[in-house]
Amino acid sequence: MKEKVNVTGVPETMVQTLYARAKETKKQNAKIKDEIAVELVEKLDYNFSKADKDKAMNYGVIARTIVLDRMVKQYLEKHANTVVINIACGLDTRCYRMERKYLHWYNVDLPETMKIRSQFLTETGPVYQIAKSAMDEFYVDDIDYHGENVLVIIEVLQCICVKRILEKCFLLLRNHSRR
Fold first, then answer.
1. What is the tens place of the pLDDT at every residue in 50-80?
2. How far apart are CA 10 and CA 24, in angstroms?
3. CA quadruple 130, 136, 142, 148: dihedral positive or negative?
4. At a CB cut-off of 8 Å and minimum separation 6, what does 109 contact?
5. pTM, whole model, 2 decimals?
6. Cα separation of 7 and 32, whole Å?
7. Partners of residue 108 on adjacent β-strands
8. Which of 44, 134, 146, 177 has the most CB within a 10 Å radius?
9. Residue of 143, 158, 157 lying closest to 102 (CA atoms)
10. How many alpha carbons fall within 13 Å on the CB side of residue 14?
């Protein structure tokens, strides 16, 4: 039985990007493989016609996925015991494509987004969900960090916010590790 998902505005992009990855995965000569995205799309009762029409968004999602998967994989191969913080994660499934390459993986997003994420992705073990804004200085309290390498992924936030969020994230982690 399919589950109805009601999202509009900015949160709707998380469903559309999930669909783009699933659609690409099903192609004969797929550039990415995201079987979890395929499984999730099959569970959703959602009208994907908008995502089907937006070719530029689809190509952009696939290009970003290829590039970021490669960069994250290379970083994790060089840096054992890395703590990954995926800010504004939506329904991103990179933590599963990079499985067993990291110490802990924290998916951070707004509470309403994480509510939808938790409906479809049961995250346990080294993968954790933090239902807080990236601008909430207390989200780092939920991160088990003791001086390990940190990789912060910010894939979809507006570029204007990225510098400010990164600065805040690292300042908070530095202060948190001093406790």
1. 888 888 889 999 999 999 999 999 999 999 8
2. 22
3. positive
4. 87, 88, 89, 90, 117, 130, 131
5. 0.86
6. 26
7. 87, 130
8. 134
9. 143
10. 25
